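thought: user wants a sequence for this fold. calling inverse folding tool.
action: design(structure=
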C-alpha cells in the first residue's frame, strides 16, 4: 500500500486512506486496504532487511534486462551524499538529532533526522541502492562507511568508483576504497589543505588543456603522484577545471559569461581515466541531487513524516527510493521514444494516479439514471450524514418503472 502511495505521489497516508473505496484495491488485494494508522504502525515493525531485499530484486531484474549499462566513459559510479529527512520543533523520537536554533524570540530546540544514500550512476538510469541513518554521536563519513560495507556485500560488482562531495575528502573514505579494490573521487575545496595549496602552486606554471563542449569552455590541469596527503595511504591525483559558460539573459537578451572553478582529488590512474573523464565523473555527482534527493522530496514527498518512528522513517525512505528507481526504469525502458517525447514523467505519474481515483468518480448506471447517486449529489451531501438511499427504499418494481420511463423520454427526445 505504501508503494502505491509513492507511485501515485499522494503525499500522505491520510490521502491514501481516502482511496479505500476504490475498486482498484479490490482487484489488487481482494479487499479494502488497512487504515492509515495501521499502515504507519506496521511500518515501524517491518524488518529493514526485507525492504532492502526488495531493492536487490529490482537491481537484479534491471541487471538481467541490460538496463544498467555504463556511461560512455565506461565507469559505473556509486555516489554518496547525506540528506536531512525532516526537521520539527514539536515531536521527537529516540533517533532524533537535536540542535538549538537562535531566533528573535529566543532559542528553540529543533529535532531532525539525517540519512546517507548511495546512488548508482549508469547510462540511462540513476539507481538508488540503499540508505543508512546517521546515528547520534557519529559523523556522515562513519555512516557512509557502514553503508558501503553493506552495499559492497549486496552489490559486489555493481560499481568500480565511489564518489562524494567535499566532505568525503577524508582519509577514511580513501582508505576504504583502497582496501576494497575500488577507486575514490571527491571534491577538493578546503583552502587549508596542503594538498590543494601544492596543486595550485604547480598548476600556475602549467599550460591548461582546452576542452570545448557546447557553450562551455573548459581549461583543465591534471597532475598525479601527490604525496602531500599521506593519511590517504596512496598517492593521489588532482584535477583542476575552470569552466566558462555562455548564457543569454532573458532580461536584456545579451550573452553573458559565467565562470566557475573545480578541484577533484582521486585515485584514478591517468591511463584509465583521462582528464575529460574525471571532469565528467565529477559533475555526475549532481545527478544524485537533481534526480535523487530533489526528485524524492519535491515530487515524491519522501521527506514527509508518515510516522515519527526511527524504523518507520527509514522504511518509507527506502520504499520511496525503490519506487523512484522502478518508475525511472518504466519511463526509460518501457515507453517508446515518441511517448517519452509527448509526455513528461510528471504526466505519466498523474495517469497512474488517475487509475486509482477513476473508480471513485463512478456510480452504478441505474443510480445515475435515477439521480440518486449522481456525483453532484454526493458532493453536496453533508460529511458523515447517513442519508437514505432512494433506490433502496422504493417498492419492488418501482426502480424498473423509473428506468423505463427515463428511457422512453430519451428516445422521444424529451428532457428526462
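)
observation: tool returned 416 residues.
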Amino acid at each position: 500500500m505504501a508503494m502505491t502511495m509513492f507511485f501515485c505521489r499522494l503525499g500522505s497516508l491520510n490521502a491514501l486512506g481516502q482511496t479505500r473505496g476504490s475498486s482498484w484495491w479490490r482487484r489488487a488485494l481482494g479487499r479494502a486496504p488497512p487504515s492509515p494508522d495501521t499502515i504507519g504502525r506496521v511500518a515501524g515493525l517491518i524488518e529493514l532487511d526485507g525492504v532492502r531485499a526488495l531493492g536487490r530484486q529490482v537491481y537484479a531484474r534491471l541487471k538481467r534486462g541490460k538496463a544498467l549499462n555504463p556511461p560512455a566513459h565506461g565507469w559505473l559510479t556509486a555516489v554518496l551524499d547525506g540528506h536531512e529527512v525532516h526537521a520539527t520543533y514539536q515531536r521527537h523520537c529516540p533517533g532524533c538529532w537535536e540542535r538549538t536554533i537562535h531566533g528573535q524570540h529566543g532559542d528553540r530546540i529543533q529535532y531532525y533526522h539525517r540519512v546517507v544514500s548511495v546512488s548508482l550512476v549508469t547510462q540511462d538510469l540513476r539507481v538508488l541502492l540503499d540508505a543508512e541513518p546517521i546515528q547520534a554521536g557519529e559523523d556522515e563519513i562513519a555512516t557512509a562507511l557502514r553503508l558501503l560495507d553493506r552495499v559492497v556485500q549486496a552489490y559486489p560488482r555493481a560499481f568500480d568508483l565511489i564518489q562524494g562531495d567535499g566532505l568525503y575528502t577524508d582519509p577514511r573514505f580513501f582508505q576504504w576504497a583502497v582496501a576494497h579494490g575500488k577507486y575514490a573521487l571527491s571534491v577538493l575545496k578546503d583552502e587549508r589543505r596542503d594538498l590543494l595549496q601544492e596543486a595550485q602552486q604547480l598548476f600556475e606554471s602549467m599550460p591548461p588543456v582546452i576542452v570545448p563542449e557546447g557553450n562551455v569552455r573548459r581549461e583543465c590541469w591534471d597532475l598525479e603522484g601527490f604525496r602531500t596527503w599521506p593519511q590517504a595511504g596512496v598517492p593521489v591525483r588532482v584535477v583542476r577545471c575552470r569552466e566558462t559558460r555562455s548564457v543569454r539573459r532573458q532580461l536584456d537578451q545579451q550573452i553573458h559569461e559565467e565562470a566557475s572553478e573545480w578541484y577533484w582529488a582521486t585515485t584514478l590512474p591517468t591511463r584509465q581515466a583521462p582528464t575529460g573523464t574525471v571532469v565528467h565523473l565529477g559533475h555526475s555527482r549532481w545527478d544524485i541531487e537533481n534526480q535523487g534527493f530533489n526528485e524524492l522530496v519535491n515530487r515524491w514527498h519522501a521527506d514527509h513524516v508518515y510516522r515519527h518512528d526511527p524504523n518507520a522513517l527509514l522504511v518509507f525512505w527506502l520504499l520511496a527510493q525503490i519506487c523512484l528507481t522502478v518508475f525511472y526504469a518504466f519511463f526509460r525502458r518501457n515507453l517508446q521514444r515518441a511517448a517519452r517525447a509527448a509526455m513528461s514523467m510528471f504526466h505519466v505519474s498523474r495517469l497512474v494516479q488517475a487509475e486509482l481515483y477513476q473508480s471513485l468518480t463512478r456510480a452504478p448506471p441505474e443510480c445515475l439514471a435515477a439521480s440518486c447517486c449522481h456525483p453532484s449529489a454526493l458532493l453536496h451531501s453533508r460529511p458523515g450524514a447517513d442519508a437514505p438511499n432512494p433506490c433502496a427504499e422504493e417498492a419492488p418494481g418501482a426502480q424498473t418503472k423509473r428506468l423505463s420511463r427515463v428511457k422512453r423520454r430519451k428516445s422521444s427526445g424529451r428532457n428526462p
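thought: summarizing for user.
answer: Here is the designed sequence. Residues 184-271 form one domain.
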